Fold:
Amino acid sequence: MKKYIILLVMSFVACTGVLAQMKWNQRYQTYINQYRDLAIEQMLKFKIPASITLAQGLLESGAGYSELATKGNNHFGIKCHGWTGRKTYHDDDEAQECFRAYNNVYESYEDHSLLLSRQPRYRSLFSLDGDDYKGWAHGLKKCGYATSPTYAQKLIGIIELYKLQQYDKAKKYDRFMESRTYKDNPSAKGGILHPIHRYNKNYYIVVKQGDTFRSLGKELGLSYRKIAKYNERNKRDKLVVGETIYLKKKQKKADKTYKNRPHTVKPGESMYSIAQYYGMRVKSLYKKNGLSPDYVPKVGDKLRVR
Structure:
């Protein structure tokens, strides 16, 4: 009995130690924004909780920045056992072990789902409830997915810190990211150069030095003319480092968090910059405030955005 209590205490200490070390990380959140719809798609097809898929992807790939992810699009650390496709080699438990390599991230997520759903040793996991992420986390460790003694605790910590369990209840997903950025686009091999963020039911990137609408279109697999149109710009406009560029048509109003919260005009702001800040159309901003097209905002003016 005493031995059991000691082991229980040691397990609790290890678990709390892992969780205490976890802090919110923007790189992790960007990864979640970029791949959550893919994880939901896999969940609807294979009955694997989206929270588990995302947490494993984050942990195994270092939020997409590991060597396996950047060189071989391998986001789940899957080795070559029985694999006839492209390969890459990396030091792991032993030197220069063989790992699977994929043409894009979509293939990596799909192969991860196939591995779990087809391997007999993971069969018991599929008897768990779809929202039992803790059961899945402990089950993956028990079934031998990873050798780390704290693997389950790390997955649970990631899920709870970033509230990934909310995606286990999803009934649908946004197909935009699947079809435009990591499945059909050959430029996405080895990772997308611009992290993709999500805001007001849209996706956006932040402009870097040398970007043009044409270069962004080529990288993201989108029509550069459409990107310019979505942002109410001319396709030949010069882009400014740090500005926000949306990848879908903007909304007619700001996010619901801005209900009854008017925008106060600051020095240097224009109707366009205000609309971009909230991810809404310029025309809608004028209309929502009953303003004529020749209106120029003055510092201190209050504008409805929702």
Notes: The chain has three domains: 14-78+104-175, 193-246, 256-303. Residues 141 and 149 are 8 Å apart (CA to CA).
